[in-house]
Amino acid sequence: MSAKLKMAGLLTLGALAGALGTIQVQAVARNVHTPLPLEEMQQLAAVFGLIKNEYVEPVDEKKLINDAISGMVSGLDPHSVYFDKKSFKEFREGTTGKFVGVGIEIGMEDGLVKVVSPIEGSPAFRAGLRSGDLITKIDDTPVKGMTIEQAVKRLRGEPATKVTLQIFRKSDNRSLPVTIIREEIRVQSVRAKVMEPGYAWIRVSQFQDRTVDDFVRKLEEIYKQEPQLKGLVLDLRNDPGGLLDGAIAISAAFLPADVTVVSTNGQIPESKATFRATVSDYARRGGPDVLKRLPAGLKNVPLVVLVNEGSASASEIVAGALQDHKRAIVMGAQTFGKGSVQTVRQLGPDAALKLTTARYYTPNGRSIQAKGIVPDIWLDETAEGNVFSALRTREADLSNHLANPTAEDAAREQAREEARRKLEDQMARTGEAPKPLPTYGSPEDFQLTQALNQLKGLKVISSKTKADRTEAAASAASK
After folding, report:
1. Is 247 within 8 Å of 316 (Cβ atoms)?
2. Where is the PDZ domain (predicted)?
3. For 8, left (φ over 0), alpha (ψ -120 to 50), or beta?
């Protein structure tokens, strides 16, 4: 495994930026009548026949057709996907926030699966798994060498089935087996807490079906503790996106009524739209306006939005809208840069096509495709500087990404690549990965501390340039 892959393994599963994208869901495929190119279709049929009749061993016809469709779609851009029965089920689990498994948020450390946090009330939580536990075996299969996606597949399964995990608990310096019965898990995409009197933190890790309801409920809890809230941090770091209506709703919670949140433009008429901070644009299927439950003071409470390279798509829509309307100070790092919208067209009961149908634009008309949201105040990941930011994949790194004439200039990209190589070389020499970053929302969370300082009018330690660090190091060495 390369140093780059080792580094990527340390990031939590939620940090797979753009995995969900910005999604609009359409239940039925459009009736599109497009003339087929006869010569190319004859070639496709000829290739199908040759493989079917002459390949070294028999090949399933359905697999050939599915692979042909997948190849056709995957060549478009990184976010258009053909879903067969299995992958469509996994996709729906991602947007609903429900899945069958043991109930842990995981990352990778030293080639092993690390328990970042057990989900409260889950089978793993009841079995006594703790943050920091290392999973060395899943059933009888060693974890060493697995990717995080492979580990997730083994941890998930059918309801009421058993999985045995071999756990190494560093705090006790011992290994122990834990048998867990899988059940349906509901992922909590919103976390929040009062950090200190008058100041609170609310984190959205993904835009799912229930995200807006959970967001409102958490804010209600905050206001019960702090009726005179003085400042709020909206944390969108490593939020890979999700449902478009959720992004519109959370933006509308802070913005004046009817202002533009985001606009979209594409080839078909329905992709040309402007979405505003109005209930008709974010309440799903004529449902109730849950934002009515929020205190009126939320519209004016001082607000900081935290973002990083893992903030993608729907989270970029929120950050861009609040930034353009000067409703919040955006702090952190330049975001992922996914400025496209995908629509899910169902192709029957068990298959679907997720197709890029539009680009989206912030209220000021900015396309962030392959560029991202540039923060108002840049922050390093730690007081010592950045650790993982140079190795995080962004939209501009993906094959076949949609081009943007306003994408980052060559100098910034070159600087980023130099930082990436330097960190990989350092890891290759020492054989050790950097210490994982503190949990978001913890007292050790450097960026959150700076966001709170901004709200309180205290000094903020903004990002140091390479020259600043060199000068500081030289000054320290001369003393």
Report:
1. no
2. 88-156
3. alpha
% of the chain exceeding 90 in pLDDT: 52
Token pair in block for residue 154: 């083994």
186, 212, 230 - which closes a domain = 186
Gap between the Cα atoms of 309 and 180, Å rounded = 35
Same domain, 221 and 364: yes
The predicted pLDDT at position 473 comes to: 46
Beta-sheet pairing, 329-332 with 377-378 = parallel
Q: Which domain holds residue 429?
A: 190-456
Q: How many CA atoms lie within 13 A of 139 on its CB side?
A: 11
Q: Which of 267, 264, 230 is nearest to 248 (CA)?
A: 264
Q: Is 289 a domain residue?
A: yes
Alpha helix ranges (H) inside 55-122: 61-74, 85-96
For residues 195 and 335, membership in a common domain is answered with: yes
On whether both 234 and 302 belong to a single domain, the answer is yes
Q: Band the pLDDT of 464: cuts 50, 70, 90.
A: confident
- Whether residue 52 is predicted with pLDDT greater than 70 in this model: the reply is yes
The token pair that represents 269 in the structure block: 């008429």
253 and 331 in a single domain? The answer is yes
Residue 182 and residue 128 share a domain: yes
CB 420 within 8 A of CB 387: no
Name the more confident of 308 and 107.
Answer: 308
167 is written with which tokens?
A: 């756990």
Count of domains for the chain = 2
Rounded distance, CA 253 to CA 260, Å? 13
Looking at 135, 158, 186, the residue that finishes a domain is: 186
- Residues carrying an active site annotation: 313, 324, 338
Higher pLDDT, 230 or 287: 230
Q: Using CA atoms, how far apart are residues 343 and 354, in angstroms rounded to an integer?
A: 6
- Residue 118 pLDDT greater than 90, yes or no: no
